[in-house]
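Progress report, Aim 2. The chain analyzed during this reporting quarter is listed below.
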Amino acid sequence: AVVGIGLRLFDTGSGGIFPEGSRMVDRNALAAAILNVFLREAYQEAVSEIYREKNLAVGRCAILHQGGRTERICGKEILPDGQLRAITEDGQEKIFIFGELQMENP
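Predicted structure tokens for the chain:
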């Protein structure tokens, strides 16, 4: 399996981890820190409460790309096992195991 994440490192008006203009970022150290947290979480029985509470998909709508399909959903909650409970455009509640989310503006 291949896992990928995208990070907006510098704030260019639409958010970012660091203020625009700051270039004092060691990308290797940042990647290592992210992997350390990811690996620590991977061995837990359930995803952390912080992850479930702070996840950007909860309470927002997004376009879900999943296995060649595209669907507009609104995130309801992250379940203890990491799955996303969401409402589809036609009002159905579904649980999603995987996919790529393209977040809509808040």
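The beta strands are 61-66, 69-78, 84-88, 93-96, 100-103. Residues 64 and 70 are 6 Å apart (CA to CA). These observations will guide the mutagenesis work planned for the next reporting period.
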